[in-house]
Write a structure and sequence with these properties.
Layout: H1 2-6, H2 13-30, H3 39-49, H4 57-64, H5 70-99, H6 103-106
Helix pairs in contact: 2-5, 3-5
């Protein structure tokens, strides 16, 4: 989580590759998304998913068309994969929260 929170992957895209691979394994192989149902993790996920969101269409056009180096393109591709995984985790959290209202309290504490 520290890699995502501190954006260490901007300096070293291999960290982002490893992190994305880790999330994919936990989701697809272990089927253990509940590991990430902790408040501090959910806050980091929220920050990543809402990063660079702009409602002004003029500014959005400037942000969506920046000059991209190959390294930035790689980071952007990996971030899109990671965001897909994070959306899946959030969807499963909300789905389980609708069934079990105490999950909100459980997410305040580490396992």
């Amino acid at each position: 989580m520290q890699i995502l929170r501190d954006k260490d992957y901007e300096k070293n895209p291999l960290l982002l590759d490893a992190t994305t691979s880790f999330f994919s394994r936990v989701i697809n192989q272990l089927k253990a998304t509940f590991i990430f149902f902790q408040l501090d993790y959910l806050i980091v996920f929220h920050n990543i998913l809402n990063e660079n969101k702009v409602t002004n269409s003029l500014v959005r056009g400037l942000i969506e068309n920046p000059a991209i180096t190959p390294n930035q393109k790689r980071i952007e591709d990996q971030l899109n994969k990671l965001k897909g995984n994070l959306h899946l985790i959030i969807r499963e959290y909300v789905s389980l929260l609708q069934k079990n209202k105490l999950l909100a309290i459980e997410s305040l504490f580490r396992f």
